[in-house]
Design a protein that fits this description.
Elements (H helix, E strand, L loop, with lengths): L3 E6 L5 E6 L3 E2 L4 H11 L5 E5 L5 E2 L1 H16 L3 E5 L3 H9 L2 H18 L2 H11 L1
Helix pairs in contact: 1-2
Length: about 130
Amino acid sequence: MTAKTKTSQNLDKLNLITICAPKRLDTFTAPCLYEDLVEKICKGAYIVLDLSQTQFVDPVGADVIKEGLLRCKQHRAHLSLRGVKPQVKSVLHAGGVLQHFKQQARKKSRKKSSLSPQNVVRSQAKAG
């Protein structure tokens, strides 16, 4: 079983790719998802892994998601999760996958806050 993939581009030439994960992400289906992720990762891509249909994830499936995130970081792409059900979330948390996504979200919020207009004004005032 292969994962369904939707590729779309908006007017800003943003490469947005949605990959729909299977109902069960286990030892048998995880390699197909991994191949699909690797195939879609390119510099600057925004990949959304849609887990809204996924009801079961085993440790192999969780590792595939984590590996996908690490590959995205290597290629300067972005990976986010959508539609994570509570039972899937608990497996991803136990497998240490969610902490990587939380770190990524924290880094983005720090960058935004450090470039906010108030901080820019303050740094210019101190320099002058």
